[in-house]
Amino acid sequence: MRDVAVIGIGCTNFGEVWESSFRDLFVTAGALALEDAGLSGETIDAMYVGNMSAGRFIEQEHIGALIADYAGLTTTHIPSTRVEAACASGGLAFRQAVIAVASGMEDIVVAAGVEKMTDVEPGASTDALTGAADREWEGFIGATFPGLYAMIATDYMNRYPLTREDLALVPVKNHKNGANNPIAQFRQEITVDTVLNSTLVADPLRLFDCSPITDGAAAVIVAPLERAREFTDTPIKILATAQASDTIALHDRRDISTLDATIAAGERAFRMARVEHKDIDLVEVHDCFSIAEICAIEDLGFCRKGEAGWFTREGETQIGGKIPVNTSGGLKSCGHPVGATGIKQVCEVVQQLRGEAGKRQVNGAKIGMTHNVGGTGATVAVHILGV
Amino acid sequence: MRDVAVIGIGCTNFGEVWESSFRDLFVTAGALALEDAGLSGETIDAMYVGNMSAGRFIEQEHIGALIADYAGLTTTHIPSTRVEAACASGGLAFRQAVIAVASGMEDIVVAAGVEKMTDVEPGASTDALTGAADREWEGFIGATFPGLYAMIATDYMNRYPLTREDLALVPVKNHKNGANNPIAQFRQEITVDTVLNSTLVADPLRLFDCSPITDGAAAVIVAPLERAREFTDTPIKILATAQASDTIALHDRRDISTLDATIAAGERAFRMARVEHKDIDLVEVHDCFSIAEICAIEDLGFCRKGEAGWFTREGETQIGGKIPVNTSGGLKSCGHPVGATGIKQVCEVVQQLRGEAGKRQVNGAKIGMTHNVGGTGATVAVHILGV
Fold this sequence. Notes:
Radius of gyration of chain A: 19 Å
CATH class of the largest domain in chain A: Alpha Beta
Oligomer: homodimer
Structural class of chain A: alpha/beta
Mean pLDDT of chain A: 97
Number of domains of chain A: 2
Strand content of chain A: 15-25%
CATH topology of the largest domain in chain A: Peroxisomal Thiolase, Chain A, domain 1
Strand order of the largest sheet of chain A: 3-2-4-7-1-8-11-10-9
């Protein structure tokens, strides 16, 4: 297999973007990525698009072709493929792009992610998102994602030393980081009291524990490492791409507050990249709910099971801590356009490794990791990138 | 890149399968493919699943994980990825499986396709399928797929010598072939009169010009060619995998009765396989409507533009003719569970090249081709397989 590098990144503003359609969003992200790589559209060999549920959100399938068309790439009739794995759709699209280049099948490949979630009737987005869970055994009996992650939080807090205040420190830290991210949906800092006094969504999770409903798109361009310097002075090498699955229903798991797919994908990624935890300078984890970040840093092995509350309280996940987590602001502050999130994570790591993250910069960052989850952990994609 | 071979195939019966759920269908197809390859589930390294619109048909996304789970493959936490390109979803899932093995990333990979279309309210399937077209510029103004293909047929018949009777010969031939295919939805022969006297759907297309709404699943297993004989005495080599895109809306095309994506994908496939038209012993084309087969055999280059009517009338597309087309019965007789069709086409070619096609057998078939179309030609996948 050939080594692969990221040569361009682009990301729209995330938020309730009323002035932009689904099509506008991905065209914007793609154009930004092309500009970043100094490329024109005709040089693109193939495209992979992560999108969870345009069928439900905008009644549109066939997203690969739609995007190739509206991005002006059908003159060269490029292969364009949609990849879906719920909220991990972006991470899997990135992985397929990497495999396509690694195989030698393609050279310059766009991996994009897009979701337009806000332009639907009230309740419709929650119902569409439930399609990421087991519709027959979870959705039909009334479980929603806040409910499922609340069960994880309840179980976790019963078994391990994590207080409600500790849990609030996750969104407090992510909002602090996101305040310095120009694309973030919510750029204000919050306090533990903000979280504790916010509306109860699904006990023990409150409004500020939950990532929002968001419109947005992100794109990255990958190429063979040996050609990367034709396009950029700062190619970012993909050291590992890993993916794992687990039961789609939470109740079928061995342990509902441990994501075995995160453990499996993490181990595979560390093995492929031949690096250790101490080598990772920052990680973007999938904090769709605050408890998800707690589980992620444990299941990826950055601290031991049950210790993430203490680890977070000690500031070890902050910029300057042992392992900065979600320097972008994470899903909580950036927002979570589900198909785009996995690609946005890659954009953040690339910015950090290039030293272009401004006030969010982790000094001297050389190696970064992304962790993108579908559903309650039925799909997990982990990538490791390095300068 | 490594050479890749098909080592196992499996297909459910296609039809209105009331007794089987979406989950039952793909588990059945996968189990048949594993049995055919003499494998157990633990040996599978990864899975790609083609599915168009489970979000609309059964309110379920996250299809890769769902299938890995219900197929009992989550104990090894395999990567499982859904691929979507409307009615070409199956063809693209097969292509991604081939790329994954060719890259060296994986060894034993399942490519599956599934769709459960009949268990919805009247009209809902037509609306879901319209998600394969341009929802904003075609769907919202009332165009459906029979309507779009009727425009292609009208344009074609105005410009080229194709009579209504010639067009009827396409489903007549496909029903004749399908009568000998145990998985086909409609296994009775029909006559030209059956077609001409059937209900008008969208002028000039009548009921028997249109592929039906169908439930079904199909699966194939691919492996590195160098390992294929561990599993089967008759490995079928993948000589080419090609994919192309075009504008999603029909009215944006250069020529609405020529599918440029078919031309592009076909040329790429012939180049990659290093074979010529005369080397192809049979082809499965995407006859979602009878006119689509007429366009396909021209755009793939088996006859010249405008000559497919004559070519069909002369029997050149029948078994025993110059290029047998749709020996399986095609989408018309087999039925068209959209995500599964591209995989079923591969199953048919593999059966033919193994010499296991029974009364449908093309004598001495050594090389076969598949042609799978998304929408009105915005995505096309072409594969060439050989013994």
